[in-house]
Design brief:
- With 892 residues, the chain is mainly α.
- It is built from 41 helices and eleven strands.
- The strands form three sheets. Strands 1-3-6-7-2-8 form a six-stranded parallel beta sheet, with helices on both faces. A three-stranded antiparallel beta sheet has the order 9-11-10.
- β4 (238-239) and β5 form a beta hairpin.
- α23 runs parallel beside α25 and α30 packs antiparallel against α31 (659-674).
Length: 892
């Protein structure tokens, strides 16, 4: 810990916090800091140190000299400057203490500094030091911001209508907080195991302070535990060179080895057979260094068993009374009701709720209720555990008889196809109304009625959420499925509505919301297997989600499903099929597989050329994509040729002064930028800008894109001042249109930061990088490639500052993300490898520098070929290493 503090004060950036220190007394500095703004890192550093002295004073039960704190510390700090050491720290502390400080006391003081920096009121300082990679390991996970959720697609809710289980939830919370455990909740279906899991999940997520966990996740076990974990836990698409299930399981294992993790597993399989002693179904869970809470109707011997027993008869009566809506006071009725619960209902809480609902709706006395159960032959033995007989008895209480309207059956059918995850009321209305042939308000009433009758479960909304959620109990789901044969074509409205919701979320960059919809989309796709246009669009949108969230392997799987469906529904020589080829090409382009991207784009172009007139605008779109691929590959002549082909079509179709034509002018300008012909580039870009400003206006997003490209041209010429001005014009439009917390806005912040870094205005650059990073962290998952790009740029800034250690740390944060998400042979990986080579060269370790530079060269040679400009630059970088020079790259 002492070493960390020494490093902190040796860092030139931290020393730069106190810019006037060299010429002022410690007391003067103290007075200035005391009255400075509290939202600055320098004031918060001062405050942390000051508080640490007084905390140490308390710990030692000795008084310090306040004047010494004010004067000596800051005077000594700047006197020793860059040669600040453990020895000088002792002198500073000793002067303040006015006696000899022992090593134990010094360590205590440093420990108090760490604690102070971790306080919420010092968040700005914490963030600042985190940015500079100066936090010690003891502080890296502080201050606690709450638990990280491994399964963000599972909504957090606490069903307040579930009675009598809070005590068990509290016991589990305490039990898991004390030490790692593997516990299984065992009990008959309908006794409340799932509700207990969800209550604990909500308690941990909403009030995590004392739990001691860093990560939690709620997984619905429906297929195989390994595949369910891979699908439901948010993890990198590629991890350590692995893909698919192997990547997900490896990622989770590493998280469990490095952090405190609790996995909540809900066994929602339709049929749960008794496992044999040698059953290895859940063996994977026992290999994880994690706490596990499993809820299942059958016991697995690998777990510590906690029986979820039936509730006492008195508690069941309370639940019945709540559901029935009246108090049972007659002693004879109470006696008869007790007999029903104990001899017929097995004290099963699902059944108790159902009986209360039936009694309320039919106005039955307990005597009539008893007779009705006899008539149906209903009888559940107490503590029944056999799955199949239990389901048969429950079916007797959930008949889809003549009293059900077609709209109610339609809604229940839809819920029987959903995953075991609650769906918000607004989405229920939006998705189910069309198929049920009712308006949204009527749909809401039906949902409420079905919940009141216990066919559905209504969940209270979590904190900050204004609408309730609805779900269906797995045993009620089974009852619905056994009594209906879903008319798949009658649920196309559900398919279309789900597709539209995903589309809207993606358009608004609401990725967390979209992630919560994807499990529903997957089950709907698998259940409603009609091969038609609506299903095609659903598959395509699922692929689009995975593409936008950089899960390219899954994006490719779902884009390919869309292609296959298009070829089946529309034929191999159809326009929709050509568009699906375009989408496949786009995924390969994102992956950096430009050969495959070009192959699919050319397939799309061939189809379009055969099907459409020669100047059709869609042909121009594919030509533009092909031009973009050639541009990335460095074949600029081909890029120019294909852009000219697109231009010819657009000028013919739209005219020379149309905004669509201006897009191609803009693209041609970018090719000339790549050729370093900046005067020609600016001529084309200004031509595009003139049209956009005139036809679309100066505040249009397309106009902003051209502003940004003009800025790029100026930046690459070294005209950073002009570049910043053009970037700021683009920024105003994007902030106005998208708001400040949007990926498109963040891109401009990043670009302006790069320009400021080139002007050596590092404080401004760092501020903008951090704004960009916060936006990305808020909207994207933590291992998204765009976040790695910001890490790379912060690293480059530290490199320019001469802090090579911090630069290397940030580069090393970026590298595994890019390797895992894009693959180890992606051009972006080569950029970071080249930058790491520059760091090692700067550190004087030429052997390591050459290793990294050659790795970058190998990647780029494979992707681009030996004649590409990037490859030639790699050769130059290697030559620079031999001659003692280095290089780095800032992403734009």
């Amino acid at each position: 810990m002492v070493d960390w503090l020494v490093t902190l004060f040796q860092n030139p950036v931290v020393l730069g916090l106190f810019t006037t220190a060299a010429v002022e007394s410690g007391k003067t500095i103290y007075q200035k800091l005391l009255h400075s703004e509290k939202n600055t890192p320098e004031w918060q550093l001062f405050d942390s140190l000051d508080r640490a002295f007084f905390q140490t004073e308390t710990d030692l039960s000795k008084k310090h000299d306040t004047e010494a704190i004010q004067e000596t510390f800051f005077t000594e700090l700047f006197d020793f400057s860059a040669i600040f050491s453990v020895g000088t720290l002792k002198q500073v502390f000793q002067a303040a203490l006015n006696r000899t400080a022992t090593d134990a006391e010094l360590k205590g003081w440093v420990a108090n500094v760490v604690k102070q920096i971790a306080l919420p009121e010092h968040e700005i300082l914490f963030r600042y030091l985190q940015t500079l990679q100066l936090l010690p390991s003891e502080l890296s996970q502080q201050p606690s911001k709450g638990i990280s959720i491994l399964t963000p697609s599972v909504p957090i809710w606490d069903n307040k209508n579930i009675l009598c289980r809070d005590e068990l939830v509290d016991e589990l919370y305490v039990s898991f907080s004390q030490h790692p455990r593997r516990i299984q909740l065992v009990g008959m279906g309908g006794v409340g195991k799932t509700e207990i899991l969800n209550k604990l999940y909500a308690k941990l997520a909403l009030k995590p302070a004392d739990s001691g966990f860093d990560f939690i996740g709620l997984v619905h076990y429906n297929d195989s535990i390994e595949s369910d974990i891979t699908r439901q836990i948010e993890c990198p698409a590629q991890y350590h060179g692995l893909k698919g299930e192997k990547a997900g399981l490896s990622y989770l294992r590493d998280v469990c080895n490095e952090h405190h993790v609790l996995l909540l597993i809900d066994d929602v399989r339709a049929q749960q057979r008794l496992p044999r002693r040698d059953d290895n179904t859940l063996a994977y869970l026992t290999t994880l260094n994690a706490s596990v809470l499993l809820a299942s109707r059958v016991y697995f011997p690998q777990f510590e068993r906690v029986n979820v027993t039936t509730l006492p008869t008195e508690e069941c009566i309370k639940i019945f009374e709540k559901q029935c809506g009246k108090t049972i006071s007659d002693e004879e009725e109470i006696s008869l009701l007790s007999k029903i619960f104990e001899e017929k209902a097995g004290l099963n809480t699902l059944i108790v709720n159902r009986l209360g609902s039936m009694s309320r709706d039919s106005g039955w006395t307990m005597k009539i209720l008893f007779a009705e159960l006899d008539k149906r032959g209903f009888n559940i033995p107490k503590a029944a555990t056999d799955d199949e007989p239990l389901q048969l008895e429950i079916n007797k209480l959930y008949p889809l008889d003549k009293d059900f309207k077609s709209s109610e059956i339609s809604i229940l059918e839809a819920f029987s196809s959903f995953p075991p995850t609650p769906l918000a009321l607004d989405l229920c209305k939006e998705w189910l109304s069309a198929d049920a042939e009712v308006d949204p308000d009527k749909c809401a009433l039906i949902l409420a009625g079905l919940a009141q009758k216990t066919w559905l479960v209504r969940h209270e909304a979590a904190e900050g959420v204004s609408v309730p959620f609805y779900s269906i109990h797995q045993m009620v789901r089974a009852a619905v499925r056994e009594q209906t044969k879903m008319n798949q074509s009658a649920h196309i409205g559900l398919v279309k509505a789900c597709t539209s919701s995903i589309d809207m979320s993606m358009d608004n960059f609401e990725f967390p919301k979209a992630a919560q919809l994807i499990p529903f989309a997957l089950t709907i796709y698998n259940t409603i297997s009609v091969e038609n246009e609506a299903i095609i669009y659903l598959a395509d949108n699922i692929g689009g989600f995975f593409e936008e969230t950089a899960n390219y392997p899954l994006a490719l799987v779902w884009r390919q499903k869309a292609v296959n469906l298009c070829e089946t529904v529309f034929g191999t020589n159809s326009y929709p099929t050509a568009l699906s080829y375009d989408n496949i090409a786009e995924v390969y382009d994102d992956q950096g597989d430009y050969t495959s991207a070009l192959e699919w784009s050319l397939k799309a172009l061939t189809l379009k050329t055969d099907l459409l007139r020669k100047n059709h605008p869609s042909i121009a779109i594919t030509c533009t994509s092909i031009a973009g691929i050639y541009r990335i590959q460095g074949n600029l002549d081909a890029a120019l040729e294909w852009n000219q082909r697109a231009l010819k079509i657009r000028e013919s179709e739209f005219g020379e002064n149309h905004p669509v034509t201006a897009i191609t002018y803009n693209n041609i300008g970018l090719v000339y930028i790549d050729q370093s012909d900046f005067s020609e580039a600016l001529e084309w870009l200004m031509k595009a800008l003139d049209i956009k400003e005139r036809e679309l206006g100066k505040d249009h997003l397309s106009t902003a894109s051209t502003y940004s490209n003009i800025a790029l041209a100026h930046k690459l010429q070294g005209d950073y001042i002009n570049a910043i001005e053009w970037y700021k014009k683009a920024l105003l439009i994007r902030e106005s249109s998208y708001g400040k917390h949007h990926p498109e806005t963040a891109t401009i912040y990043n670009n302006i930061a790069c320009a400021y870094a080139s002007l050596e205005q590092y404080t401004k650059a760092l501020e903008l990088y951090m704004i960009t990073l916060k936006i990305y962290e808020r909207l994207l998952r933590k291992d998204h490639p765009d976040i790695a790009g910001i890490y790379n740029n912060i690293a480059t800034l530290n490199f320019d500052l001469g802090d090579l250690t911090a630069a290397l740390s940030w580069y090393m944060k970026a590298l595994p993300i890019l390797e895992n998400e894009l693959g180890k042979e992606h051009p972006s990986v080569a950029i970071v490898c080249n930058n790491i080579a520059g760091v090692f060269n700067g550190l004087g370790d030429k052997s390591k520098a050459l290793v990294w530079a050659r790795r970058a060269l190998k990647i780029n040679e494979k992707v681009f070929g030996k004649e590409h400009t990037t490859v030639k630059n790699n050769y130059k970088a290697i030559m620079f290493i031999f001659s003692g020079q280095g290089d780095s790259v800032c992403n734009d």
